[in-house]
């Protein structure tokens, strides 16, 4: 599975960002069965401003299957889902921490922490 995470900084040590603030997307290929990261690929967004379709198409271009993001309104979530991209919201923190929690089935802990 390839997970897409928006950030303002480049790299796994960067913090996840809202879509509107993102300058980079980190694409992380994970194997959920073996709980390992297979590949990390970072791309700078090729545009400053965008239409609603641009980000989902950008993510699909890199075979993203899941978008993990801080917040995304329901209409945008539905649009991503229509484009075949699952969405997980309510997540904040460093990309590496988020990916480790995700592959270990503990992403809910980050989401719960962020609610407080």
TrEMBL record:
Xref: InterPro entries: DiNase_FeMo-co_biosyn_sf (IPR036105)
Name recorded for this polypeptide: Iron-molybdenum cofactor-binding protein
């Amino acid at each position: 599975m390839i997970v897409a995470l928006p950030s303002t900084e480049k790299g796994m040590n960067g913090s996840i960002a809202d879509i509107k603030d993102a300058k980079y997307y980190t694409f992380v290929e994970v194997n959920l069965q073996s709980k390992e990261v297979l590949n990390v690929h970072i791309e700078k967004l090729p545009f400053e401003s965008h239409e609603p379709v641009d980000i989902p198409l950008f993510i699909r271009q890199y075979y993203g299957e899941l978008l993990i993001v801080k917040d995304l309104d329901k209409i945008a979530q539905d649009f991503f889902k229509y484009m075949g991209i699952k969405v997980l919201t309510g997540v904040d923190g460093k990309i590496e921490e988020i990916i480790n929690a995700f592959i270990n089935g503990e992403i809910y802990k980050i989401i719960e922490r962020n609610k407080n």
